Amino acid sequence: MTEPAPVAINMDDFDRRLGAMVREAAMTDIYLVIVAQQLCDSPYGALLVAGESSSRAIEVCKTLIDAHTDIAEAKRVELRELLRRAAELVKRRNRYVHGTAIYDAAGIAHTFRMRHRKVGLERAPVDLEDLSDIAHGFVTLSIAFNEWIAAVYGEDQAA
What we know:
Layout: H1 11-40, H2 54-67, H3 73-97, E1 100-103, E2 109-114, E3 121-125, H4 128-153
Antiparallel strand pairs: 1-2, 2-3
Helix pairs in contact: 1-2, 1-3, 1-4, 2-3, 3-4
């Protein structure tokens, strides 16, 4: 995918889109907790992912679904795909959530962030459409997680 040409942005628009994206990402995080609970067949399953990063919660859910041979293989494959999509969205989300948007000398907004055990700043142009796309991805993912839970564990277990 080609990087979009950097353009000057309205920071109020950026803030609104960032907030929407973070809200939808948080909803997906809740579904990861619910999936972990269901896969553990215990409300204490949430303790496996409570306070963990989204990436860690995804890895825990992958491990749990791999151990669940009692769930139909098609549903296991479906959940693995949902978790793969979640990992991709979290990676894209992190650029905005763990970075800061700063205008450069030319008036173009970029995100800057430090990476764990990396020297220097990671810099990328801010893309408002990307923010909206990430938010939409989290919305559709949350719906898909809820549908998966309902299909595997029953409608009464879905949100």
